[in-house]
Amino acid sequence: MTEKTIRREDARLLEGKGRYSADWNLPGQLYAFFLRSDRAHAEIVSTDVEAAVARPGVHLVLTGADYAASGWKSLPGGVPYEGVGGQKQRKPFWPALAQGKVHYVGQPVALIVADSAALAQDASEDIAVEYRDLPAAVGFESATAASASRLHADIPGNLAFEYESGDRAAVEAAFAGAALKSRLTVRSQRLVGNPIEPRAFLASADAASGVFTVYSPSQGLNGMRGFLSSATGLPPERIRVITELVGGSFGIRSYSYAEHVAVMLAAQKLGRPVKWVATRSEVFLSDNHGRGLTLTGELALDREGRFLALRFEDTADLGAFSTPFGPQIGTRNITVTMGGVYRIPAMFAHTLCAYSNAVPVSAYRGAGRPDIACAIERLVDRAAAEHGFDPIALRRKNFIPPEAMPYKTANGTTYDCGEFEKVMDKALELADWRGFPERRERSKREGRLRGIGIATFLEASAAGVAPKDQAYARFDASGVLHVSCVSQSTGQGHETAFVRILSEGLGVTGERIRIHEGNLDLAVVGNGTGGSRSLYGAGSAVKLLVAKLIETAKPLAAEALGADAVEYEDGKFKTGSKSIGFFELAKKLATQSPHPMDCVAEGSFGATFPNGCHIAEMEIDPETGVVDVVNYATVDDIGNVVDHTSVEGQVHGGVLQGVGQVLAEHAIYDPDTGQLLAGSFMDYPMPRADWMRAIRCDEHAVPTKANALGAKGVGESGTSGALGATMNAILDAVRFAGITDLDMPVTPDRLWRALREARNKAAELARLVT
């Protein structure tokens, strides 16, 4: 194998040589366990911790009263922008330990610290909490009903935020004159992120300096430190965040959690390190959930099938509190690309966000973009079926053409580049769209139903909140190059990609290059990993670092070679017949401190718009309702590609997460009690690798000028295409039976019942006719 086919991280990960947060231990550390609410909504009448405190080996028990006495703050959350009429989002105080009330099953009520985790758990059973139960409101509709119990005293109707985007009047006028209209509702159900690595947090506090050192999975130390600073009121420089390996994130590692802040408070009070590692049950009960959106869309067309207007009425279930990203998902994130890849003259969207008695919702792979992409693509397919258009021809007629780029959508987003028709044509060929009728007939002869579905989608990679992205170059005493940036790999292969950018740019091999993410010795500015921006953000800074390293080293190389000037080529500085290699020079100068070749590169890089076309083929056993993914093809425009192996892995993973949502995953709450009914893998099915036995991936790169690499991001593209493609394929398979709509997840039971009901209706109609 060549260097290009080997990921640098893999050997270390496969051999178990990495270090995750739960692997960290400090001298004298104690162990934490959380007593959690066993009910969704209740007043806390009293909390008696005396028996737990008296148990031998227990060092501390904290409750909401202790958190209030500490003077520490609310957990951060909410959006800074205004909603309808200039309103600000209504945000309740969010304590790390419940105060006065509990708002969802799993909310931390007390923290027990003991000599062992088992002892802390045993002691939790000695705590007596008296509750006064209140009615639970689960889901947006229940929470906003006139009879709903108010979750937070200062938020009437449980409504957190009202938001709109686009031109309502223009859309209403277009619909009034439209010859054709189609409408549907997409319910994007709650999901549990379930990364392979459960949350873990280890905190120590230095009494002399007041500095905390914490070890935690994260998506970048700057983000984690900022949110911990906001919750504790401590300045960021007094919080050191250490993250090495992270076993999956999907967005739910972006921010601090209540448990993190409570463990920090315990470490401060005890003057000893305190460690907490979540169980898988706690992942279900307390990790931020994803999705929780309902999108009702309407499309207006003229008689020839040209799109005239698009509008959405949306609702978002935020859960019990507002995470830093939760309300943005159902507002800006689903409206920034609500036109997809289509030229639509008028658009409008209106969203209501509400609090409910469930786990708070936050970013989860795509954070709203897969949901809106699915709604658009299902709506286009619905329009084609209802009004007699070919779904491919209808899309082709309405694509934004390349010559219209940059294209400003009707609600203000500017797409910089894209060749949507070429992407679709490549996918149609890859999927053998023309050969589908023959495959459908073969399935029919075997007693199975077969459908094909397409999604031509566009999503936005995040612009980020930091003003710029930096990459620092430092050389050690042996001349090895160490490059530091802020992004945090959670499985994406950053080390492989960044080393390749450097080695190819410098014309050297990668053996003497090391990548560091989250270097505590450097104040690096930059965005963490999120919104598929790591490669084009931190990666672009690394790209700019190539030229900065060469220019910094040129006068040093000239001096070493006794020349006035040198040129750089193929990893060497040259003048006449003399030359010195890049790392040869670095080693020669390594006795100096600081190393004279040390430097930093930086740049500001805006949002980009990855897009693609996914085509899914699904086969259904009508006797059981079981669905198989028999073929899946992807063509993605993610701009310039640095490492094709990592891209393929990201696409495979993203597609499978999307298919998992379509076919199986659902965080189900009991509507009356608010109890989580899908609280373990016994009740919450996970997507399996063998679901995707036949997936083919290709690329169609249209480089962007928005960053130094010309890359667009790929982490969320797979999921953004998968929801629409797989749902359209399932509906294509059952449309003959009169089934035009199904909610996710399309479980075997749900599909079998729909088919049985359709057969019964057909039989009854036939009986009436005869």
What's the SSE blueprint?
Layout lengths: L9 H5 L15 E7 L5 E7 L1 H5 L3 E6 H7 L30 E2 L5 E7 L2 H8 L3 E6 L6 H4 L15 E8 L1 H9 L3 E9 L2 E2 L7 E6 L6 E4 L5 H12 L6 E4 L15 H13 L3 E4 L2 H7 L2 E2 L2 E9 L5 E13 L6 H10 L10 E10 L13 H19 L3 H8 L8 E2 L5 E2 L4 H12 L4 H10 L3 E10 L10 E7 L5 E5 L8 H13 L6 E5 L16 H28 L5 E3 L2 E4 L2 E4 H7 L10 E5 L7 E11 L4 E12 L6 H20 L31 E5 L17 H18 L13 H22 L1
Parallel strand pairs: 1-13, 11-12, 16-17, 22-23, 29-30
Antiparallel strand pairs: 1-5, 2-4, 2-6, 3-5, 7-17, 8-15, 9-14, 10-11, 10-13, 15-16, 18-19, 20-28, 21-22, 21-27, 24-25, 25-26, 28-29
Structure description:
By secondary structure, the chain is of the alpha+beta class. It is built from 20 helices and 30 strands. It has a 7-stranded mixed β-sheet with strand order 3-5-1-13-10-11-12, sandwiched between helices. Strand 28 and strand 29 form a beta hairpin. It is globular and about 95 Å long. It starts with 9 loop residues before the first helix and ends with a helix.
Quick description:
With 770 residues, this protein is an alpha+beta fold.
Radius of gyration: 28 Å
Mean pLDDT: 95
The beta-strand count equals 30
Strand neighbour order, sheet with most strands: 3-5-1-13-10-11-12
**Classification by helices and strands:** alpha+beta
Ranges where pLDDT stays below 50 over 5 or more residues in a row are none
Tell me, what's the shape? globular
Q: Beta-strand level of the residues, as a percent range?
A: 15-25%
Biggest sheet: strands, sense, closure?
Answer: 7 strands, mixed
The share of residues in helices is: 25-40%
Q: Number of DSSP helices?
A: 20
Could you tell me how far the N terminus lies from the C terminus, measured between alpha carbons in angstroms? Answer: 70 Å
